[in-house]
TrEMBL record:
Transmembrane segments: none annotated. The lineage of its organism: Bacteria, Pseudomonadati, Pseudomonadota, Gammaproteobacteria, Lysobacterales. This is SDR family NAD(P)-dependent oxidoreductase. Keywords: Oxidoreductase. It comes from the Bacteria. Belongs to the short-chain dehydrogenases/reductases (SDR) family. It comes from Pseudoxanthomonas gei. InterPro entries: NAD(P)-bd_dom_sf, SDR_fam. Gene3D superfamilies: NAD(P)-binding Rossmann-like Domain (3.40.50.720).
Length: 257
């Protein structure tokens, strides 16, 4: 087939609460979305929720844990021969409470292995791919509410979140030479979800609000800092279709559909 295609956006951790909000905000903004997440009920629920959205594609492999996983994903993306304009990364394991002093050192080691190193593996392979595109590309991480000060009872998560924020600052500097803007949207409050809605505070944002602010980073050229605090005023429906300024020809090729 032939025609015009808008650039795609990749969402890592799409099956999570924040990831699903980013997926929804991107689809709302008119962007084709490639969703990557751990295969299971949550990814199936995401696919079912957006079953009527032809712009959403669920991708395999389903998650990134190391360099090998990231390299496989990039190989698949190259085979698509379609421009990739942005990557959103929301990779984290469920929170587990406990005092830092009460847990063995391996607990922190595992937390870093599962919540920090996958981000580095993904960035090492995807940022160079984004750098091959014409114009500015974006790599956006989503940070949680416990990076600047210790979160009582969740010290391991606070340490990992602080390390992720520093990783963002380093990648922000290193990726500039490649034409890729790396940023983190730092969400300083828990999210309101259907499970906690009864007890949630009024100022807690929804996943969709976080997604909308994250998507707005793709269009706001003045926000050049590495870490951007969440702002409910930026969590608005986009005024126009995302990437409407781009016009990429779609080469004729065979498809399996």
């Amino acid at each position: 087939m032939s025609g015009i295609l808008n650039p795609e956006v990749l969402v890592l951790g799409a099956a999570g609460t924040v990831g699903s909000g980013v997926v929804g905000a991107l689809l709302e903004a008119g962007s084709p979305v490639l969703a990557v997440g751990r295969d299971g009920p949550r990814m199936q629920s995401l696919a079912a929720h957006f079953a009527d959205e032809p712009a959403l594609e669920i991708m395999t492999p389903g998650c990134i844990s190391n360099d090998e996983d990231a390299a496989k994903l990039v190989a698949i993306l190259r085979q698509r021969q379609r421009p990739l304009r942005a990557v959103f990364a929301s990779l984290a394991t469920p929170l587990e409470s406990g005092r830092l002093l009460d847990k063995p050192t391996d607990f922190l080691r595992n937390k870093l292995e599962y919540d920090l190193l996958p981000h580095l593996a993904a960035a090492r392979h995807l940022i160079p791919l984004l750098g091959e595109q014409e114009g500015m590309s974006h790599y956006v991480l989503i940070g949680g509410p416990h990076a600047e000060c210790g979160w009582a009872g969740y010290g391991h998560a606070s340490i990992t979140a602080a390390a992720l924020r520093m990783l963002t600052n380093v990648l922000h500097e290193e990726a500039q030479a490649l034409g890729v803007r790396v940023q983190m949207l730092a969400v300083d409050k828990p999210l309101t979800t259907p499970d906690n809605a009864r007890n949630a505070c009024a100022e807690w944002p929804s996943a969709m609000a976080v997604g909308r602010h994250a998507v707005s980073l793709l269009t706001r050229t003045e926000r050049t800092r590495a870490v951007v605090p969440f702002d409910a005023g930026r969590a608005l429906t986009p005024p126009r279709a995302l990437f409407s300024e781009f016009s990429f020809p779609l080469a004729t090729r065979e498809t399996n559909s």
